[in-house]
Amino acid sequence: MPNRSYLFYELTNSICSKCLRKVEAKIILENDCVYMVKHCHEHGRERVLISTDIEYYKKCREFIKPSEMPYRFNTPIKYGCPYDCGICPDHEQHSCLTLIEVTDQCNLQCPICYAESSPQKKRWRSLEEIEFMLDSLVKNEHEVDIVQISGGEPTIHPQFFDILDLAKTKPIKHIMVNTNGLRIAQDRSFAKRLAEYLPGFELYLQFDSFEKEALKELRGVDLRETRRKAIEHLNEFNISTTLVVTLKKGLNDQEVGKIIEYGLSQKAVRGVTFQPIQAAGRLEDFDPATDRLTLSEVRQMIIDQSDVFNSEDIIPVPCHPDCLAMGYALKTNGKVTPLTGMIDPKVLLEGERNTIVFEQDEEIKDKIFKLFSLNHSPLSSSMSLKDLLCCLPKVSAPNISYDNVFRVIIMQFLDAYNFDIRSVKKSCVHIAHPDGKIIPFDTYNLFYRDDKVKRLEEIRAEMTGVNHERV
């Protein structure tokens, strides 16, 4: 009997990338890669690369733990995922990080922008609207892990510091500002004032490339001098900063290691987040067939291009292992020591938050414990390491602060091509809708942003019509 050229691994549901209707999808293993194969009755067959690393893909299935749920849900289950956002009772993860978009306006018009922001857009949310969104999130979470003030470009909001003051009055552990850095680079006094919000405050700074042409393709302008000046100001006031790299295959992916190395050399930088382009929003000069990057490809780039992290140091994040990977290291006395690979995965998955298990190598164990005993006087935070490492077990290390932490995160957002309903139910990065709903980032940009709601309503109407016919 003839055999298939692949192994059929599992079955899930997806959506057609053209009409966005729900379709059945097979996950297959072929030629050392993982593919999603789906078929739409109207638009035919699609085959999408999901992962270039079969063993890591399987490993993600092992990195699961009981879901952490919100204290309330915002919508009922009526049409089924992804048409009921959010958060509906069928979702499997609370909000680890929630974006509050305070404006649609931006001082750039990037050729790649999931929100399609631009100088031409004029919508500014009022403090009352923003407080309503924050309070809706607090009702869900009681104590919110991370709120990211976003846009558009939030730093140009005329009440920007009023927004930060408002957020500081809410039960939020950590506040981030998602920024392109222009205002920080141009106005030293603005950067100085940001330092007043430390600790528990961080900048999520766009930092895509060191190359002029790559920046012009992704952002429309050469931002090299802007980035240099912004980092200079952030270092001066030691404002905790994450460098955020939007990755496009063949454009800036060869700079992964160089950006990590640069981040490690900067006083204020606490880590780098790599985000492959999500096929949503404004997508100039982007071909999903050739320009997409998978999480596994980015993970391998970090391993191949970095002298710090190896394959054991970049692991799935248990709350959403398909789309999030992380690696932590400690920076002390000019040395960098990877931390993640020294932790027993069982500690992560069983929810044990008081134990850290190191490898049996005595030299490594001694080195880490010596790091924990070093005496530091951090300027930006008095918190101990046990309060800083997202998704890691707590450790007793009171002399190590956020200044000593360096993390690498891969954050892959699902789009209409790789959309996996099994996976999206675990999405933990959300966007607050102005009506009070808290919606997964992945589905927000496909169905719930601006004019995209029209297509969602059409699909819902089709589903309702089918139900009437059955009755």
UniProtKB/TrEMBL annotation:
The reply on keyword Metal-binding is yes
Give a yes or no for keyword Lyase in this entry: no
User: Which InterPro entries would you find in this protein's record?
Assistant: Aldolase_TIM (IPR013785), Elp3/MiaA/NifB-like_rSAM (IPR006638), Methyltransferase_Class_D (IPR034474), rSAM (IPR007197), rSAM_sf (IPR058240), Zn_ribbon_HMPTM (IPR056488)
**MF-aspect GO terms:** catalytic activity; iron-sulfur cluster binding; metal ion binding
> Domain named Radical SAM core: which ranges?
89-306
Recorded superkingdom: Bacteria
UniProt keyword annotations, A-Z: Iron, Iron-sulfur, Metal-binding, S-adenosyl-L-methionine
Per the record, the coiled-coil ranges are: none
Pfam family of the protein (one): Radical_SAM
Annotated protein name in UniProt: Radical SAM protein
